[in-house]
Amino acid sequence: MNSLKDIKCESVIGLSQSVLLRQNVRNIYQKLYQDTLYQIDEEDRINDVYYDGKIIPVYEPGENFAMFVKRVVPVNDAKMSYEEIWKELGKPLRYKTSVSYMTPENLLDMKGMYPQIIFGFSTNESYSIEAMYLKDAVTPFLFGDELFVDEYDSQYEIPAKLEANTYGGYNELVINTLSQNEGGRIEKTKPSYIVYIQENQQEDKEQNKLWMNSLKAARDFGIPIIILDREKIRQQQREQIINKYAEAKKTDDRLLAQMYHYIERYGIETLENVIPMEIIKKVKIKCDERNEKVL
Fold this sequence. Notes:
Elements: H1 2-34, E1 45-51, E2 54-59, E3 67-72, H2 82-88, E4 96-102, E5 117-121, E6 129-133, H3 159-165, E7 172-176, E8 178-180, E9 186-188, E10 193-198, H4 209-221, E11 225-229, H5 230-248, H6 253-266, H7 277-294
Parallel strand pairs: 2-11, 10-11
Antiparallel strand pairs: 1-2, 3-4, 3-5, 4-7, 5-10, 6-7, 8-9
């Protein structure tokens, strides 16, 4: 009997140590990612927009940024509030939400998708990273509060590695979004800002329903809007690739990964005259193979 008790005790201790180790790992990665996330900087403020009685600040980050982003379907009923809907996703209170770690290299590609509002999170001090995947992990699209795949299958990577190894368009992380308010009540952490990806600087936003919906979301939450210009980012990424190749006169794994992400989003046409075709074809084959795996 004593031996059996000893085995049970050792099992409990082992389990406790395993849980503690997992939490310590999560804390380490939480800090690593927190240090990279874009924070509102008044120097990036480009203008203010007056919408439905509220002034909404608009910012545009510099060339380098990283964000936790979550896509949600637009609310087309003026009486419905994005903030209330966000809170309602927690009855009973759900704490896991699926997001992507987005950088200029892994800018969300919205082609062929239903228009979506993008929530951005700039601080994860109040929540932890529960799981991490290099591609779409097929978590529930809207709610993201439970996993179809076992979280033990997740693969934790440092930010630079996740950026380099992402495939299929975007990565996926599952985060705990519960936080404690000033009154001590546990509630769902609201986004830090709304992210709007415009196609180019000539875009007529006033005629764009997605822009107007983004303004509504920003107003409902009382948060600013971050604008990202797809064409400007594409040009910056192209210039980086060309400069890195010209300097090294060859491609290493990291440059090939950046080229892969570029071709995946923008095609091969704008690289054809500056990068040898045999290299471009090699990357294009890799794109096709990886996308087939995702499908």
